[in-house]
Amino acid sequence: MKIITDVKKIDEILNRGTIVEIFPTKKEFREKILSGNQMKFYIGFDATAPTLHLSHAKNFMLMEKFRKLGHEVIILFGDFTARIGDPTGENSYRRQLSREEVLRNIKKWKELIKPLMSFNDKENPPKIMYNSKWLSKLNFEGLINLASNFTVQQMIERDMFQKRLKKGQPIYLNEFLYPLMQGYDSVAMEIDVEVCGTDQIFNALAGRTLLKKLKNKNKYVVAVTLMENPKTGELMSKSKGTGVFLDVLPSDMFGQIMAQPDEMVDILFINNTNFSLDEIKNIIKSSNPVEVKTRLAFEIVKIYHGEKKAEKAAEEFEKVFRKHEAPGNIEEIAITIKERNIVELLIHLGLAPSKSQARRLVLENAVKVNGKVINDPMITISVSEGMIVQSGKRNFRKIKGK
C-alpha cells in the first residue's frame, strides 16, 4: 500500500482546526506521518444511543482522511465498554445498557456512517472491530494485572472525578475502572495512533501507558474538538438529543443546520464539509450570512443523501420557511379517525416527546392544525383524513386514517 506523504495534504489535516492537541507532541507526530511508514489508527465509540450527530460525523471524516493517506484505520465499537459506563460528566452516572440495546445501536450506526467512509475500497478499506472480542475474555487475574500499572492517585486525577469529589458526589467502581478497559483496547490491537474527543484524553493516555509497559510500543493520541458553541459552550449530545442528527430526513437535516446559531457556521464548515480552508474563507467572504448557511446546509445534506435530495431539501426549506407554505412531502401517520386531545395527538404523531413538552408547544403558539394556531392544551381536535398538524417551524405530519 502506497503511503502518501504530501506535505500540503498532511498540513491541511493537522492545521484545519478539527485536531485540538496531539500527544506527545504535534511535531513528533507530523514527522512520523511524513516518514512514509504505514500506521494503525483507531477511534472508539460506545453505542449508548441509537443515533449520531455531526460532532460524531466529523471524527469519521477525519479517519477517512488518514485512510486515504494509506494508513490502516479501525472503527472500534465498544460493545463491551458501552455496558460498563464511562462517566458522562461531573454530575452524572451513565445508565448501563443491555447487550441487546448496544447491538441494536451499533447496527444503526454502521448504516449511518456508510456515506462517510469508503468501506467498499478493495485495497485498504476501514475495518470495524468490537472490544468484546478481548475484554469479555479478560479474567479477574488479568484485570488485577492491568490495574497494577496505575495508582489510585493517577486515576483520581481525572477532572470529572475531581469535580464529583469536591461536591461530595459518588464515583462508582465500574467508572473508576473504565480507563483500564479503554486503555487495553490499544494493547489488544497494538495501535500506533488513537483519535479521540478531548473528553477522552485521560482514557487514551491510559492506553498509551499500558501499551508502553506491556508491549514497549509508543502510541500517539490525536485529540479532536467536541464542536461546542463558542458563545454558550453547549455541545451536540446524543444523550440530550441536541444537535444535527444523521438519521433524519434530508429536509429535517437541512432545517436543523439552518437553525444552528451563526457562530456555528465556521465550525460546521471546517468539521463537516470537504472544502479546503481557502475555499471556506472564499465562500464566507463572497456571500451574505443567509446564503452562506444555505450553502453549508446544502453541502452537508449532499454528503449524506446525495445532490438531488439536497436540492429538494433546499427547495422545501424555501417553501416552508421563506414562503410559509406546507412542505410538499409530509410524513403520513396512520391513526384512528376520532376526536383527540391536542396534547395526546402531538405525542401520537411523534411531534412531542412528552405531555409537558406538548403542552409547552401549544401554550407557545407553536402548534397548528391545518394552518390554524392551537393555543389551548385542553382543546379536543376532530381528527380527519388528510389533516396536517404542525409543531414548531419545520415539523409536519399528515393524518392517514385506518
The helix/strand class is: alpha/beta
Q: Strand-and-helix sequence, N→C?
A: HEHEHEHEHHHHHEHEHHHHHEEHHEEEEE
Query: Stretches where pLDDT falls below 50 for ≥5 residues?
Result: none
Strand order of the largest sheet: 1-6-5-2-3-4
Q: Work out the helicity level.
A: 40-55%
* Overall 3D form: globular
Number of helices: 17
CATH class of the largest domain: Alpha Beta
CATH topology of the largest domain: Rossmann fold
Q: Any overview of this molecule?
A:
- The protein is of the alpha/beta class.
- The chain has 17 helices and 13 strands.
- The strands form three sheets. Strands 1-6-5-2-3-4 form a six-stranded mixed β-sheet, with helices on both faces.
- Helix 9 (about 175-190) packs across helix 10 (about 200-215) and helix 11 runs antiparallel to helix 14 (about 290-305).
